[in-house]
């Protein structure tokens, strides 16, 4: 039991020491405004594209494509309705868009929204 206590102490000391250089460096440099930092963190041509909710027959694909020559970096979909289930959410084969598929128990259709993160 004592060996666990002795092992935990060095780990806590090491974890605390890891923050010292970061804090000292941060106090010596100016931090850019949040908007500038966010813009520089995004890939060139970043755009969030949405396909608003619409009812479609169960298991029918809803496909959203990135505008122009942009490529999809990620995405998602949402199934809406009572007992709605998202069956699939994945990129298109060519990497230019996102697909959402769903179903709704007890109904012939389901509401599907699709979202894509696009960039140049």
Characterize the structure shown:
With 120 residues, the chain is α+β, with helices and mostly antiparallel strands. It is 28% helix and 43% strand. The protein has 3 helices and 6 strands. The chain has helices at residues 2-17, 20-28, 34-41, and strands at residues 47-57, 62-65, 71-80, 84-91, 97-104, 109-119. The chain has a 3-stranded antiparallel beta sheet, with no helix packed on it. The longest helix is centred in the first third of the chain and has 16 residues, at 2-17.
Give the structure's gist in a few sentences.
The chain is α+β, with helices and mostly antiparallel strands. The chain has three helices and six strands, in the order αααββββββ.
Label the structural class. alpha+beta
Give the SSE order as H and E letters.
Answer: HHHEEEEEE
For the biggest sheet, the summary is:
3 strands, antiparallel
Count of helix runs = 3
Oligomer: single chain
Low-confidence parts:
1-27
Please estimate the helix content. Answer: 25-40%
Strand order of the largest sheet: 1-6-3
Separation of the first and last Cα atoms: 56 Å
* Percentage beta strand: 35-45%
Quote the average pLDDT: 80
Number of separate strands: 6
The rounded Rg comes to: 23 Å
Q: What shape does the CA trace take?
A: elongated
